[in-house]
Amino acid sequence: MIYLFLTALIWGLSFALAKKALLVLGPWQLVFIRLLLGGITVWLVQRRLVTRYTFGGPERHLVWLPGILIGVFEFALTYILYTASLAYLPSGLVGALTLLTPIYIYILSLFAGLNTWDRRALGAVVLSVGGAAICLPKELWQGFDNHGWTGFVLINLSNLCFALGNVLIDKFQLERRWDDDHTYRGLFIGAAVCLIPAIFLSDTSALTSMSPEQMLLPGYLGIVATGIGFFLWNKGVSSTSALMAGVMGNLKGPLALAWGAVLLAENINTAMIIGTACLFVSIFLVPRRRIYST
Fold it and tell me: Fewest beta carbons less than 10 Å away: which of 36, 83, 186, 271?
């Protein structure tokens, strides 16, 4: 579970940075750069720092279906829709709405046969979403304007795609068809999906006119938030479950506020303490039993 906690810590800082990066780059360009840099980062980590383990023989590395599906749903569609939503909603509200992801994961995992109807699992989901919402400042929920519902629809479609990607990882793992190499394959496939729109639907002059300081934003978002973040996240999903990942992922809400307290001397109030406590309780409510296919 440490992988998921570290990812939540990293992602808690990324929402505002993505909004800031969009002041310089178009959404397609930003997503392409993030996925490409993320893929390179995970490939380097896998090749240089990690001793790979697979369930089968070398032929497992030739199976691209998991990488293709993860690349389309968990990476390309998730990031395109998420980035597009930032044009309609404040970054803080977009981050808040991602807290609904465990609901989608739970519903999809029921359809996929990965979970059965379980009051304890349902309680974990409700407590996770509720606890994370308690932590967030009330002003965030006042961020809707005339285009707010467009942003709401976009970020929830993004949540749905991300949830589907996580459920697919869980299913591939249980079927013994998942290995960590699929993460960088998926990132490269996601980048390829975004390449043509990034070239033809964006102002490419923005890339050549960026200052060194401005390049740091997509660099951080690609290497750290996307590359290292998804390397850790997918390892966490495959070693626990999609539902556990969804519930633990909501820690990014209070962790984002904790970053504000550490870096900006912002206050930690009682609501944040209560909400965080609810989140930790929800983690222990998630059923640990896994259903392995035969």
Answer: 271
Q: Contact 70/195 with Cβ under 8 angstroms?
A: no
Q: What is the pLDDT of residues 53-104, one digit of tens each?
A: 444 444 444 467 889 999 999 999 999 998 888 888 877 778 778 888 999 9
Taking Cα atoms as reference points, which of 11, 41, 78 lies closest to residue 227? Answer: 41
Map 51-66 to HEC letters: CCCCCCCHHHHHCCHH
Long-range residue pairs from 21-24, CB within 8 A, at least 24 positions apart, any chain:
21/217, 21/218, 21/221, 22/83, 22/86, 22/87, 24/206, 24/210, 24/214, 24/217
pTM above 0.70, yes or no: yes
- Give the Å distances, CA to CA, from 135 to 93, 121, 126: 13, 21, 14
User: Tokens in use for 155?
Assistant: 């970020």
